[in-house]
């Protein structure tokens, strides 16, 4: 396993970058600990594959350093980094059998036959490939080929890290759940550092101990799934994670109140003035909005109700802005307008997209 450090790392595909927008990866410094299961999560084009390729050695960064266990590997080729990689599309040898494909990474490194047989038996059992071992890879389906590719990444027991780049794209939905659970179990048993690139929040949150959320070339938050849900450090994190995502509303902040149009929404603490030049917003997850009784809370315009079985999603507007709230399945929804109240402890204040700590708090 490996401790991976990124020290003032940045990358541009331009020869002479001169402004922040020229960088595919903006400067970052992070440490990923031994044996962690990390997911790089973000939309297409946010820089997550570029970052993975820098860690693997496929791309040399424009600036900064990559360290494995304190050793500078920034300019070392991939084969010198003691890692395994699994790509979005299967990388296998069609002329070989399934067993030969799984054995190849070990055979190529001179591993003894008994160890090879033991490891490919373990990996084939884990991935459900036992019955396919003597079949040529050429005739297999795309998802079966990707399972072989996963197996080739997992078969080496000596690697410091395994890097996955959207590995389940070609796998059918039911198989995705099974393979994610299997990968999680492998991580727990092997304690190897795993980094998993995906744009799918479900994949990230169910696989990783910590999720690295990227947006526009930046790491905007690194945290556990619970931290990302309960305390998004950036409005993008709140919007991207959750279904529905966090409500983000322009607001005027005055002490312990946020003003959105005519509505005054209580905050969990007081805030210092943000300044006129700052884009000030509040974020409230739909789960922390409740139907209010009488004159409590604030009035919203109800546009539609989505009944999804476990609960109802109320699609509303506040001051002309869309707002989603979660109501219990059994809740009676008035047809002539509703009022909502927010849990003050879960109303976050943002300045230019970044969460602002309350006065006297971190």
Automatic annotation (TrEMBL):
Domain of life from the UniProt record: Bacteria
Q: Which UniProt keywords apply?
A: ATP-binding, Cell membrane, Membrane, Nucleotide-binding, Transport
According to the entry, every stretch annotated as the ABC transporter domain falls at 4-241
| Single GO MF annotation | ATP binding
Which Pfam family is one of this chain's hits? ABC_tran
Q: How does it sit in the membrane?
A: Peripheral membrane protein
Xref: SUPFAM superfamilies:
MOP-like, P-loop containing nucleoside triphosphate hydrolases
* Signal sequence coordinates: none
Could you tell me which InterPro entries the record lists for this protein? AAA+_ATPase (IPR003593), ABC_transporter-like_ATP-bd (IPR003439), ABC_transpr_FbpC (IPR015853), ABC_transpr_MalK/UgpC-like (IPR047641), Mo/tungstate-bd_C_term_dom (IPR008995), NA-bd_OB-fold (IPR012340), P-loop_NTPase (IPR027417), Transp-assoc_OB_typ2 (IPR013611)
The record's subcellular locations are:
Cell inner membrane
Q: Do you know which SMART domains this protein is assigned to?
A: AAA
A GO term from the CC aspect? ATP-binding cassette (ABC) transporter complex, substrate-binding subunit-containing
Q: Which family does it belong to?
A: Belongs to the ABC transporter superfamily.
Q: What is this protein called?
A: ABC transporter ATP-binding protein
* Organism listed in the record: Prosthecodimorpha hirschii
